[in-house]
Design brief:
The chain has 11 helices and 8 strands. The protein is α/β, with parallel strands linked by helices. Strand 2, helix 1 and strand 3 form a beta-alpha-beta unit.
Length: 253
């Protein structure tokens, strides 16, 4: 467990909060492990009726903590690293899952949303998946789910070019389900949670499973495919050069 992920139980509601605001909630290996453990454990909790993913501070998350991630690069054939465990947990989750996003949602901060049942986004939220900029490939089955949601051309815009997009566009192609005015994210989230908790719990769980249907196997298969390429890319000169350039640019900023 890590202090950078708050795990808070409120009766039938489990809150998972990214709590590293001084680093814009950049996700470390320890944070991935804490999130994966919490979501996995939730599957056996019959009293649990909703999980929320939230971020403390000015951003939902700035994505991977690259320095931390590169120190813990997966070895050849390794499939049980914390980030892969989190992605599998998200894809296999059977508890209604809501994300509340604001500020920046970068990299996995966007791709994890594809596995949420509902996404509440504050006006001004910026989504970005800069994988190719870093010499990497998409993860979280985003190469499968995003084209299915937005169409291949928009998916190429976001994944090949790494262009950012806002709440209005995200709502239009189906990533965002609820919009919140500036400063009202918690209020909007609370209303969605209250509606879910007013529904019969077994009906909720069964409906959530039906919505995921037979696509789960395909999603997990695509994750495995993506993860293989991702792991290979991490050892490439392209990635090393791109990440060096990223840190150099940040130091100059």
């Amino acid at each position: 467990m890590t202090e950078h992920v708050l795990v808070e139980r409120r009766g039938p509601h489990l809150r998972l909060v990214l709590n590293r605001p001084e680093r814009r909630n950049a996700i470390t290996v320890a944070m991935y492990a804490a999130l994966a453990d919490a979501i996995t454990a939730a599957q056996d909790d019959a009293e649990l009726r909703v999980i929320t993913l939230e971020g403390e501070g000015i951003d939902f998350t700035g994505g991977n903590d690259l320095a931390d991630f590169m120190k813990a690069m997966p070895q050849d054939g390794e499939t049980d690293i914390p980030v892969w465990r989190l992605l599998r947990a998200l894809a296999s989750n059977q508890v209604p899952l809501i994300a509340a996003v604001h500020g920046n949602a970068v990299g996995i901060g966007t791709t994890m949303l594809f596995h949420c049942d509902l996404v509440v986004a504050e006006e001004g939220t910026r989504f970005k998946m800069p994988f190719t900029e870093l010499g990497l490939v998409p993860e979280a089955a985003s190469s499968l789910i995003l084209p299915a949601l937005a169409g291949r051309q928009l998916a190429a815009k976001y994944l090949l070019l790494g262009e950012s997009f806002g709440v209005e566009e995200a709502e239009r192609f189906g990533l965002v389900t609820h919009r919140a005015e500036k400063g009202s994210l918690n209020e909007r989230l609370g209303a969605v949670i209250a509606t879910l908790l007013s529904r019969p719990p077994e009906a909720l769980r069964l409906t959530q499973r039906l919505l995921r249907g037979t696509s789960q196997d395909e999603v997990l298969e695509r994750m495995t495919w993506e993860n293989g390429h991702f792991s290979e890319r991490l050892t490439s000169e392209e990635v090393k050069n791109a990440i060096t350039a990223f840190f150099t640019a940040r130091l100059k900023a």
